[in-house]
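Late entry, evening session. Most of the bench is empty. Finally got around to the prediction I had been postponing all week. Sequence below, unchanged from the version circulated by S.P.
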Amino acid sequence: MTQEHIPPQRSLISPKAPETREIIPFDRDGATGEVLGPDLVRALILYGQRYGLDPYAGELIYYRGLPYVTERGAVHNAVRSERYRGHAVSIVPPEERKAMGLQDGDIAYRCEVWVKDVAEPIVEFGEVTAAELEQTKTQVASAVARDRDFRETTPAQQERETLRRLQFLPLMKSPGKMARARAIRRAHLLAFPLKGENAPSV
């Protein structure tokens, strides 16, 4: 696909040079920051080998207790296909966000994936809502309260630990980047789904 296929306000991302993203440590749950045991870490590595994804490269993590293909993994999977022709990403303007049922303060991105011999791009969206951010704060606080190292501590100490963990979660550090990454991930997995039994879906 050549540059002129993409409207000028959208950037064409080379399939061989996906954007750099912070790599989430795969020994922690990407949603809550909870530390995973060595058995879960080994299981994730084996799971990645089944689909050609590398947790060490940030292509596969645990998210809410389940294996989760990241933006890096979805793009890596697509690049392996000779039919992949790149992708374009744009932020969803306010009027379209409203039509999607999103509220003020919510963030949304649109990703188009171009595939050889397919006339129109495969399109998906990624969102981060204010409600999700509040839910994440509650989940992390609950995880801290369950942690054996903090069960007997004071509420103030638990709150400090909750804030410490929240600052390491990509969702909380940069909601806009997370919405963008979700759009890219979903569009690539829709265009080039992983093959095999129990393969992760969009």
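Two things to note before I forget:
The chain is about 40% helix and 15% strand.
The chain has a mean pLDDT of 85.
Will write this up properly tomorrow.
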